[in-house]
Amino acid sequence: MNALPKFFGAADPVAYGGKDAKNPMAFRWYDKDRVVRGKRLEDHLRFAVCYWHSFCWPGGDPFGGETFLRPWHHGSDAMAMARAKADIAFELFRLLDVPFFTFHDVDAAPEGLTLAESVANLNAIGDIFEKKMASAKVRLLWGTANLFTHRRYMAGAATNPDPDVFTYAAGQVRAALEVTNRLGGQNYVLWGGREGYETLLNTDLRRELDQLGRFVSLVVEHKHKIGFKGPLLIEPKPKEPTKHQYDFDVATCYGFLQRYDLLKDVKLNIEQNHAILAGHSFQHEVALAQALGVFGSLDINRGDDLLGWDTDQFAMNVPELALVFHDMIRGGGFTTGGLNFDAKIRRQSIDPDDLIHAHLGSMDACARALLAAVDMLDAEALTGPLAERYAGWTDSEGQAIMAGKRSLADLSDRALAPGFDPQPRSGRQEYLESLVNRYV
């Protein structure tokens, strides 16, 4: 394959121009060096470009084929195309000035006829990544293995009825985890794309859950063996491609991790689109993960309210993002995680620079939302009324109840005392909703 000509129209990295900037290739809100609550915006948001949607998706849908016509999608030498794709990827990382990227193994390198050949391909592209990263700003937020596209995984990987498929998947994950470790990845993701079922007529639920628990335990053991320091991340999703997936939502994943004694090493990577498919809001899933101590990272995208599937659009809804970031920062923000753009441009957005505009616009929306979230936190706009609502639990009687110093009989005797007549207080929902609108 011949060397690719210049792909993007832009030549210089996108820079901050201020909210009145006229340049379409300028950030209006994302000033990466602006310090907020003791951290630069770049360090709060930790943006990552994903390899699969940005460089692997050809623009097809169930009713139409490829629209993007990417030059690295067409050729007889799969490894040459993979190297060309890496060149374009690192050029986009440079133009967006992002600190991180993410990839699946088969996004980066072609699958071979055998696992050994696939692993060799991945390591070869890993060498290229390593060389490019040595002279680039970008680092690896996380890597993962694709255990859902190949037909061998049609009945799942870890939950497959055939232990040989389980074994093959273990080999694939080992290779991806080791490359992630070699590249200094800060996390490793396990997404159970087909870890679920289509029908209970041919499914042994208990067996499959035990298999999944054993598989994740094996990955934890190997993580420690090779000295990988970051957490493993499970990404909840309720359905699609399977009818029911075992990583349905945050609550389900927490129960799974607790049952198989994995809470110490595994956190969650939460996605807005998946939250909606589970019947929750994005804010709910983030807040619950924070409450349960399993918050890890975020895939930052959005779904279409009129469509019931995973549309993976770039996140642009500032009010929604502001509430998510409010809860995230209140809980301490990211440690090893970040905002991964698991999002794809629309199939009619065929100009290469549409990739830049999509990321730029969403980065600006995230920055604007984070600044609004910080303003709300600094003013105690939501945390103040929240503390007031639960104030009774911080006084001596409330603390005694929670400390186990009151029996059921004690509480009953108090409730039966003359004059004891607690009255409800307003939840003030509409006031709080209008309050949020003052900031966004």
From TrEMBL:
One cellular component term from this protein's GO annotations in UniProt: cytoplasm
Entry note: cofactor: Binds 2 magnesium ions per subunit.
Binding site for Mg(2+) 1: 235, 271, 299, 342
PROSITE patterns cross-referenced by the UniProt entry: XYLOSE_ISOMERASE
GO BP annotation list: D-xylose metabolic process
Record-annotated active site: 104, 107
Residues annotated as binding Mg(2+) 2: 271, 274, 310, 312
Sample GO molecular function, one term: magnesium ion binding
Record-listed E.C. numbers: 5.3.1.5
InterPro entries xrefs: Xyl_isomerase-like_sf, Xylose_isom_bac, Xylose_isomerase
Cofactors demanded by this protein: Mg(2+)
Lipid biosynthesis recorded as keyword: no
Keywords recorded for this protein, A-Z: Carbohydrate metabolism, Cytoplasm, Isomerase, Magnesium, Metal-binding, Xylose metabolism
Keyword Isomerase annotated: yes
Localization in the cell: Cytoplasm
Superkingdom of the organism of origin: Bacteria
Substrates-to-products reaction catalysed: alpha-D-xylose = alpha-D-xylulofuranose
Family annotation (PANTHER family): PTHR48408, XYLOSE ISOMERASE (PTHR48408:SF1)
Subunit structure of this chain's protein: Homotetramer.
Stated name of the protein: Xylose isomerase
Taxonomic path: Bacteria, Pseudomonadati, Pseudomonadota, Alphaproteobacteria, Hyphomicrobiales
Gene name of this polypeptide: xylA
